[in-house]
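forwarding from the other thread:

> can someone predict this with zinc ion?

sure thing
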Amino acid sequence: MSNASPAAEKRMRLRFAGTCRVCGIDIPAKVAAVYERSTKTVRCLAHDERPDVPVVDGSLDVGTPGASARREFERRRDGRERRVRARHPRIGSFMLAVSDEPQSTAAWNTGALG
Ligand SMILES: [Zn+2]
């Protein structure tokens, strides 16, 4: 095999916008593309000969196992707090302090931890 080593290229979501080396179109940040280490250029996934290689996520949190579950948990928890406080403006904080998370919300937290 005379091909370049696999590490020479990386499929990832771009941290910064780039321009495709092959067709010259702009590739916005966070869009999946192929990064070529040797030339420090990027190209569209459309030019990739190995579409079976999974996309590696270059962003910080995205793609971390459990991250999406954690976000869903926080979204649900925040929504619940807003609802309780809206319904009970005076004692909402007290109610939140003494009551447990409902099972459906707690399950998302379990997923985030696991
Ligand atoms: Zn291109």
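The first helix runs from residue 67 to 87. thats all i got for now
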